[in-house]
Structure formats: structure tokens, C-alpha cells
Amino acid sequence: MKHRFATIMRPYLRPYTLLKKTEGVWKGGKLIEGEPERVALRGVIQPLGRKILQEDGGRYDEDDRNLYTTNTHAAGDVVEYKGKRYTVTDDDDRSDYSDAYQYVLKRVKP
Fold first, then answer.
1. Which CATH architecture is the domain 6-107 placed in?
2. What is the rounded average pLDDT of the residues 34-53?
């Protein structure tokens, strides 16, 4: 039986944007990257817990976040939240028993 966590998350959902890669074009023998397609989504984005910050050997820091959403993402996806960009690095696939997904977002440094 799948648990229904999406209804619990509903009051906390906030907008974020998936920056979906588009095909580039070749110009003068060079590939010019295409502008990303902006896809509006909703999820719960929170700071990482102290446990993951301490136990993961410095892989993550205070700028990184957890994302809880009903949308699926792949490692390497780039999302934007409150003007900051993050790369999806890890997922916690709970799809066998949950209607929500959890991802770790690594902040893209300017």
C-alpha cells in the first residue's frame, strides 16, 4: 500500500523551476548551448539536516538543500529556487511505497 505523503506536503509547497536542457545549435563549427526551458513546479525545499552535513565527509554544505516533491527528477537536473540554482545529486527512491520523492540539491556556486 502506498502512503499518501503528498497531501501532508500540500500546505508547505512552494514554487521552484526546473531548467530543462534544450538542444543547442552548431554555428561556425562550435556548439552554442540552447537556452533552458523553464518548467514551473512545486515542492518543499528545506536545509539539509545536521546529520547528513556531518556524516557525508564534506560533500554537502550549508547552502545545499533537500527537495520533497511529487515530480520526478534525474541526477544532473538543474532547478532554481529563490534565485539560486541547484543540481539534483541524489534521490531517495521511495516510489514503491510513497507518492512523494526526496532529492538532495547541491548549490551551483556563481
1. Beta Barrel (2.40)
2. 88
Of 6 and 81, more confident: 81
> How many angstroms separate the first and last alpha carbons of the chain?
43
* Residue 82, helix vs strand vs coil: coil
Contact by Cβ (8 Å): 105, 79: yes
Q: What does pLDDT average to over the chain?
A: 86
C-alpha angle with apex 48: 85 to 83, nearest 5 degrees?
20
Report the range of poorest mean pLDDT among 8-12, 57-61, 65-69.
Answer: 57-61
Q: Is the pTM of this model over 0.85?
A: no
Burial 55-93 (b: 16+ CB within 10 A, else e): eeeeebeeebbbbbbbbebeeebbbbbeeebbebeebee
Q: List the Cα angle 97/100/103 in 5-degree steps.
A: 115
